[in-house]
Structures are given as C-alpha cells and as structure tokens.
Amino acid sequence: MPSGASTREETRVIEAYADAKPTIAAEVSPETPLESLNLNWRERDLPEKQRTKHVHRLHPYLGKFIPQLVEVFLRKYFQPGQTVADPFAGSGTTLVQANELGIHSIGYDISAFNVLLMRAKTERCDPAKLESEVRDAINAVRRTNCTAARIPELDDEMTDDEPVDSDYLRHWYAPEALRELLTFRSAIMRANPRYELILKVILCRAARSARLTTHFDLDFPKQPTTEPYYCYKHSRTCEPTRDAMKFLERYAADTVARVAEFQALRTDADVTIIHADSAKARVAKIDGIITSPPYVGLIDYHEQHAYAYHLLGLKDRRSEEIGAAANGQSERAKRKYQEAIANVFDRFVKKMPSGGPIIVVAGDKHNLYPRIAELIGVETEAVLHRHVNRRTGRRNNAFFESVFIWRKR
Ligand SMILES: C[S@@+](CC[C@H](N)C(=O)[O-])C[C@H]1O[C@@H](n2cnc3c(N)ncnc32)[C@H](O)[C@@H]1O
Q: Which atom of ligand 1 is closest in space to residue 321's alpha carbon?
C-alpha cells in the first residue's frame, strides 16, 4: 500500500468499500485478517450516539479518535493483562477502551485540562455518591439564585479559591452566568467532594456553553458576541446566553448517567495518567502503543479549552505542545515535527518487546509518517486508509486518515 493517502488511493478505498460490510469492533480478534477490516464507517453504520457512548462525551474535545477504531486495534493486537501506552492520550479514548477490555493502560498528555478530563473519565466511582455530590453543588447555585438575585462583585467571589483570570471571565460571560459558574466552583472547592474532578468537568462543560458566543462557533470563538445574531445552526435569530444554570443542570444529569454507564463496564485493569511532556517523561515497560499524535500546525490543544484554564487556574504548557498550531506548517515546522514525534516514539519503543505493535492514527496529508517510521527504525506491517465520512453538525466535511501499523524490530 502507498504510504500517504493519495487521491487515487482515496478513490480506490471509496470504491472498494462501497458495498462491503463495515467492521463490528466487538467481533475483531487477533485472528481477524487486516485485509478483512472495513473501517470506513458511515453515519448509519456507526451513529454519533455510539461514537460518543458513555464517558466519551463527558466534555467536547476537538481531535479525538473514535472508540470503535481503538477497540478494533486493541482486540487485534493486545491481550487482557498486557499494557498499552498512549503518549498523546488527549481525552483518554485509548485508556477508556483498554480498561473496558481488561488491558492496562498508561496515558501521557501535556495539557492540564486533558489530564483532568481523562482522570475524571477513568476514576472508580460510586454513581449514587456522585449524584448526591452533584446535587449539593447544583443546590448551592439554586440557593444563590433565590437570594434576591444578588449579583456579587466578581472579586468578592474569587477571594477564597484558586487564582483565576478575572479579565478573561468578565470578557466572556454575562454577569449572571459568571455568578452561577463561580458559585458552582465555590461549592466544589469548599465541600472538598470525593468526585471533585468529575464536578470540575461539569463546571467546564457548562462554562464552554455559557460563553458569550454564537451557537455555531463554540470551538474557537475569537470575540464575545453580546447582541442578537443570525444563527446558521438554527436558521433564525438567536441571542447569546445570559445564564449558566440551564447548562449546569443539563450536564450534571448527563454526566451522572454517563459515568454510571461506564462504571458498569469498568474492569480492574490499571489506568495510569501522567501529566508530562512525553518527550521527557519517564516511560515504564509497555507491550505496545496506540495513539493519534497532535498533527503539524492544526489544533491548539490548550486554546480549545481556554475557559477551563482561566476558571480553574490550570497551568498553561502550550509552549511544550508538539506541532503547535501557532508554529504553522512551513517546511521547517514539518521537519521539526517529524523529529519531535520520532523522538517520543523512540523513547516508548525502547520499553517494548521486539515485535510489539505501534498503531498510529494520523490524517497524514503531508506524508510525514513514512519518514518518522524510518527515523525510529520500525517495520511497517500495513498502512490502512480510512474514509471518514460522517455527517453530523457543522463539521460535516469528509476526509481521510491513515492507520500506520508498525512493529518493533
Ligand atoms: C490528537 S490529540 C489525541 C487525542 C486522543 N487520541 C483522543 O482520542 O482524545 C493529541 C494530544 O497530544 C497532546 N500533546 C501535544 N504535545 C504533547 C507533548 N509534548 N507531550 C504530551 N502530549 C502532548 C495534546 O495536548 C493533545 O491532547
């Protein structure tokens, strides 16, 4: 197979799989031939509800891979009791799916919010206790809303908690929304709940939706929207939101249900999450890798959750992101990217047994990965090209991604 996804190759993939039965992840085993896989799931084969099942939708995250894709390669290349590493673990898709299958996992990420999200998704949890803690925090906001519509000074609200960037918060939230978010935050900080991380995820998800922005630009809004606007998502005039309570309530209920669903599937397999630059962190012994690395100059992984960093006072380590969007896609940026990714893989591959699998999912339109394979000296078992042609929301553009299947020599 060619290494990068050429247009001819893309046409071949679309034609070859037009009538073929899509792979059902749960049916894959180590004996399933790679050639029999059809990973070109269409919306009707793998609806959004399944792609975002249980904790995979605790909080939006731009740039994750779908759990069914990870499940296919976990089932094909790993056994329960083995350990898979994801050096760019993001929102934790590899870790959640590995745990479901009884496979130990170790995930690394440089972005503090992603680490918080992964820990919230994968921690052991008693859903009844979580529900009670969530109810307490929601009730604290309800009580404040009832007390004569008090709108305290922002600085008063902030004195007893971690430092936050109040300029950012004043800029992006209507006063009522901000008061509700800060009351929820204070309730979490004061009560010291057992499930603080999950509560923080609810807070951040509500904070994302409650920003003064349009319904169609929640990913990277540039300026607050304070006036009514024509909404492309709803085909009518909409107004920026003034409150956060409806989001807190909605996401609180949704989160409790999702966490409970995953807890019923959770196994005793270990999940280890490390907040570190994977180019420098200590690496333990592993059996293989499944990952989707940051791509060159594409997504800013800190910026997409800016509200969380400001609200929770999380440490910003964007300068350590590999392939940071701010560094662009020049030839120099691409070369540096290849070296940086190869360096990370090299460090992890050293901790694997010979023959161990390295599965890398990347939309490699610049054809950078064959050189990365050369730099680390792995053997290429196969490269699969996958047509991603889902049609949901505004992100309905079809594209190709490659799955590189390498083996340690
Ligand atoms: C494509 S995303 C991974 C998404 C993940 N597969 C998922 O399903 O959620 C790449 C991740 O690499 C992380 N990253 C970038 N540079 C890093 C570095 N130097 N060390 C560790 N993680 C890094 C980013 O923060 C981002 O979360």
A: 16
User: Residue 83, SS3?
Assistant: strand
- Whose alpha carbon is nearest atom 25 of ligand 1? 111
Give yes or no for a contact between 301 and 323, defined as CB atoms under 8 angstroms apart.
Answer: no
Residues 62-83 have pLDDT tens digits of 999 999 999 999 999 999 999 9
117-131, 158-172, 184-198, 377-391, range with the lowest pLDDT? 158-172
CA distances from 80 to 43, 53, 100, 105, 317 (A): 30, 22, 10, 11, 34
Question: What are phi and psi for residue 236, nearest 5 degrees?
Answer: -165, 180
Q: Pocket residues for ligand 1 (CB within 6 Å)?
A: 61, 63-65, 88, 90-91, 93, 108-111, 114, 277-279, 292-294, 301, 320-322
Q: Which tens digits make up the pLDDT trace of 319-366?
A: 999 999 989 999 999 999 999 999 999 999 999 999 999 999 999 999
Residue minimizing CA distance to atom 17 of ligand 1: 321
Q: Atom 12, ligand 1: which residue's CA is nearest?
A: 88
Distances (CA, A) of 288 to 83, 107, 254, 284, 302: 7, 12, 34, 11, 27
Quote the pTM value: 0.92
- Name all domains of the chain by residue range, CATH numbers in brackets: 7-122+271-304+316-407 (3.40.50.150), 127-261 (no CATH)
